[in-house]
Write a structure and sequence with these properties.
single chain; mainly alpha; 4 helices; 147 residues
Protein backbone atom coordinates (compact mmCIF):
# COMPACT_ATOMS: atom_id res chain seq x y z
CA UNK A 1 0.00 0.00 0.00
CA UNK A 2 1.49 3.30 -1.13
CA UNK A 3 1.28 6.80 0.20
CA UNK A 4 -1.38 7.74 -2.32
CA UNK A 5 -4.22 6.93 0.09
CA UNK A 6 -6.07 9.89 1.52
CA UNK A 7 -7.89 10.17 4.84
CA UNK A 8 -10.98 11.63 3.16
CA UNK A 9 -11.41 8.57 0.94
CA UNK A 10 -10.45 5.50 2.93
CA UNK A 11 -9.61 2.34 0.99
CA UNK A 12 -12.91 0.49 1.20
CA UNK A 13 -14.73 -1.89 -1.08
CA UNK A 14 -17.64 0.06 -2.44
CA UNK A 15 -20.92 -1.75 -2.61
CA UNK A 16 -23.75 -0.21 -4.56
CA UNK A 17 -25.92 -0.04 -1.44
CA UNK A 18 -23.18 1.62 0.61
CA UNK A 19 -22.43 4.04 -2.18
CA UNK A 20 -26.09 5.02 -2.53
CA UNK A 21 -26.34 5.68 1.22
CA UNK A 22 -23.18 7.79 1.17
CA UNK A 23 -24.39 9.78 -1.84
CA UNK A 24 -27.80 10.35 -0.28
CA UNK A 25 -26.18 11.79 2.84
CA UNK A 26 -23.62 13.89 0.99
CA UNK A 27 -26.09 15.36 -1.51
CA UNK A 28 -28.84 16.12 0.98
CA UNK A 29 -29.84 19.78 0.83
CA UNK A 30 -32.16 21.59 3.19
CA UNK A 31 -32.57 25.15 4.42
CA UNK A 32 -30.40 24.58 7.47
CA UNK A 33 -27.31 23.34 5.64
CA UNK A 34 -27.12 25.55 2.53
CA UNK A 35 -24.11 27.59 3.61
CA UNK A 36 -22.18 24.59 4.92
CA UNK A 37 -23.00 22.57 1.80
CA UNK A 38 -21.75 25.39 -0.42
CA UNK A 39 -18.37 25.27 1.30
CA UNK A 40 -18.32 21.43 1.28
CA UNK A 41 -18.89 21.13 -2.48
CA UNK A 42 -15.23 21.26 -3.58
CA UNK A 43 -14.20 18.55 -1.12
CA UNK A 44 -17.24 16.43 -2.01
CA UNK A 45 -16.43 16.73 -5.69
CA UNK A 46 -12.84 15.70 -4.99
CA UNK A 47 -14.01 12.76 -2.89
CA UNK A 48 -16.30 11.42 -5.60
CA UNK A 49 -13.78 12.11 -8.36
CA UNK A 50 -11.28 9.91 -6.51
CA UNK A 51 -13.90 7.19 -6.10
CA UNK A 52 -14.85 7.51 -9.78
CA UNK A 53 -11.23 7.20 -10.89
CA UNK A 54 -10.52 4.18 -8.67
CA UNK A 55 -13.72 2.40 -9.63
CA UNK A 56 -13.21 3.14 -13.34
CA UNK A 57 -9.74 1.60 -13.18
CA UNK A 58 -11.22 -1.39 -11.38
CA UNK A 59 -13.91 -1.67 -14.07
CA UNK A 60 -11.31 -1.60 -16.86
CA UNK A 61 -9.28 -4.34 -15.16
CA UNK A 62 -12.37 -6.49 -14.69
CA UNK A 63 -13.35 -5.93 -18.32
CA UNK A 64 -9.97 -7.26 -19.44
CA UNK A 65 -10.38 -10.33 -17.22
CA UNK A 66 -13.87 -11.03 -18.60
CA UNK A 67 -12.62 -10.61 -22.17
CA UNK A 68 -9.69 -12.94 -21.54
CA UNK A 69 -12.02 -15.54 -20.02
CA UNK A 70 -14.33 -15.22 -23.02
CA UNK A 71 -11.42 -15.77 -25.43
CA UNK A 72 -10.24 -18.77 -23.42
CA UNK A 73 -13.70 -20.33 -23.43
CA UNK A 74 -14.28 -19.47 -27.08
CA UNK A 75 -11.09 -21.28 -28.09
CA UNK A 76 -12.05 -24.25 -25.95
CA UNK A 77 -15.61 -24.57 -27.25
CA UNK A 78 -14.68 -23.81 -30.84
CA UNK A 79 -11.60 -26.06 -31.15
CA UNK A 80 -11.17 -28.43 -28.17
CA UNK A 81 -14.70 -29.28 -27.08
CA UNK A 82 -15.69 -32.94 -27.45
CA UNK A 83 -18.69 -31.98 -29.62
CA UNK A 84 -18.21 -29.92 -32.76
CA UNK A 85 -20.09 -26.61 -32.37
CA UNK A 86 -20.69 -25.16 -35.81
CA UNK A 87 -22.83 -22.22 -34.82
CA UNK A 88 -21.49 -19.09 -33.12
CA UNK A 89 -24.74 -19.00 -31.16
CA UNK A 90 -23.98 -22.43 -29.70
CA UNK A 91 -20.46 -21.37 -28.78
CA UNK A 92 -21.83 -18.22 -27.12
CA UNK A 93 -24.50 -20.26 -25.35
CA UNK A 94 -21.83 -22.52 -23.81
CA UNK A 95 -19.64 -19.56 -22.87
CA UNK A 96 -22.49 -17.67 -21.22
CA UNK A 97 -23.53 -20.87 -19.41
CA UNK A 98 -20.07 -21.24 -17.87
CA UNK A 99 -20.40 -20.44 -14.16
CA UNK A 100 -16.97 -18.79 -13.84
CA UNK A 101 -17.62 -16.56 -16.86
CA UNK A 102 -21.12 -15.77 -15.62
CA UNK A 103 -19.78 -14.74 -12.19
CA UNK A 104 -17.08 -12.55 -13.74
CA UNK A 105 -19.56 -10.95 -16.12
CA UNK A 106 -22.04 -10.31 -13.30
CA UNK A 107 -19.32 -8.66 -11.24
CA UNK A 108 -18.37 -6.52 -14.25
CA UNK A 109 -21.97 -5.37 -14.70
CA UNK A 110 -22.18 -4.47 -11.00
CA UNK A 111 -18.94 -2.51 -11.31
CA UNK A 112 -20.33 -0.67 -14.36
CA UNK A 113 -23.36 0.39 -12.33
CA UNK A 114 -21.06 1.76 -9.62
CA UNK A 115 -19.02 3.71 -12.19
CA UNK A 116 -22.18 5.10 -13.81
CA UNK A 117 -23.58 6.09 -10.41
CA UNK A 118 -20.37 7.91 -9.54
CA UNK A 119 -20.38 9.68 -12.91
CA UNK A 120 -23.95 10.88 -12.32
CA UNK A 121 -23.01 11.97 -8.80
CA UNK A 122 -20.18 14.10 -10.15
CA UNK A 123 -22.60 15.74 -12.59
CA UNK A 124 -25.04 16.37 -9.76
CA UNK A 125 -22.33 17.88 -7.59
CA UNK A 126 -21.35 20.19 -10.45
CA UNK A 127 -24.90 21.53 -10.56
CA UNK A 128 -25.41 21.84 -6.79
CA UNK A 129 -23.83 25.28 -6.48
CA UNK A 130 -26.44 26.60 -8.94
CA UNK A 131 -29.18 24.88 -6.96
CA UNK A 132 -27.94 26.42 -3.72
CA UNK A 133 -27.71 29.87 -5.34
CA UNK A 134 -31.25 29.51 -6.68
CA UNK A 135 -32.61 28.40 -3.30
CA UNK A 136 -30.92 31.33 -1.54
CA UNK A 137 -32.26 33.75 -4.17
CA UNK A 138 -35.73 32.30 -3.75
CA UNK A 139 -35.53 32.66 0.03
CA UNK A 140 -34.40 36.27 -0.39
CA UNK A 141 -37.32 36.86 -2.73
CA UNK A 142 -39.76 35.42 -0.19
CA UNK A 143 -38.24 37.55 2.55
CA UNK A 144 -38.37 40.71 0.43
CA UNK A 145 -34.61 41.04 0.10
CA UNK A 146 -34.63 40.69 -3.68
CA UNK A 147 -31.71 42.28 -5.49
Amino acid sequence: MGNDSDNSTPEVKLTLEGLMEMIEGDLRLDRSNLENKMFELPSLYSKYLKFFTKESIKYNKQDKIVSAKYRELYDYYKFDYKVKLDSEKLVDYHIISDSKYSDLNSSLKQQKIIVNTLELTLKRLSAMSFDIKNIISYQQYLNGVWR
